[in-house]
Amino acid sequence: MSERPSWLDQVEKIASDAAATNGCLLYDIEFVGMGKGRTLRLFIDKDDEGGISLDDCSNVSKALNEVLDKDEDIIPGGPYTLEVSSPGLERHLVKPWHFQKAVGKKVYLKTSKSLESMGVTDKKWKAAKTVEDVIESADDQAVRFVINDVEIKIPYAMIEKAKVLFEVTKGQKK
Fold first, then answer.
1. Given this model, what pLDDT does residue 170 score?
2. What is the rounded CA–CA span in Å between residue 129 and residue 151?
3. d(C-alpha 173, C-alpha 114), whole Å
4. What confidence tier does 174 reach under pLDDT thresholds 50, 70, 90?
5. For a Cys staple, 116 with which of 30, 60, 73, 126, CB 3.0–4.6 Å?
6. How many helices, marked H, and strands, marked E, lie in the chain?
7. Strands 130-134 vs 137-138: parallel, antiparallel or unpaired
């Protein structure tokens, strides 16, 4: 992962306030690219099951632009594109509260080291670096799975990549 620019913390606070003012919460923020292809991406969400609307994205974008346009020095390096969207069905899980919100959902998770280094002794799992199963629980330090009576607890610091897996269940209305 690339080093996070120091000014992004200030932008994250402003973006979080802009989202909250519009009844949303800031799910994640990223800044990618160099030169002319620079993009600031905000992912917003809501606590209710209704999800994010196009109006929500537009309102948060306008509110953030108002603040960022007043102080052009906040984001150094010239022009950039601002994108505001929902994190989507197969949302990436980065922060502990993302995992806590995904308890009971099936996720894909890739670790930086084998599960054996995290205390897993079951021979089927100890060499594994990926888990694809339902999150049993999550706290501020780790996420926990129970697969065929095997407990797998993975500290957030060991997670390279994680996302919710969208599943279609039979008989579900389209």
1. 72
2. 15
3. 39
4. low
5. 126
6. 3, 9
7. unpaired
- Cα–Cα distance for residue pair 81/83, rounded to 1 Å: 7
Burial class (CB in 10 A: 0-12, 13-18, 19+), 44: buried
> pTM for the full model?
0.80
Cα-based distances in Å from 21 to 16, 18, 25, 45, 61: 9, 5, 9, 13, 12
Element (H, E) at 15: helix 7-21
**Rounded mean pLDDT of the chain?**
90
CB atoms within 10 A of CB 138: 22
- Name the strands in the sheet holding 81-85, side by side, starting at the edge strand that comes first in the sequence: 25-32, 39-45, 81-85
Cα(142)–Cα(22) distance, integer angstroms: 31
With contact defined as beta carbons under 8 Å apart, do 114 and 128 qualify?
A: yes
- Residue 165 in tokens: 């897996």
Q: pLDDT, tens digit, for every residue of 11-50?
A: 999 999 999 999 999 999 999 887 678 999 999 999 876 7
Six token digits for residue 95: 């922060």
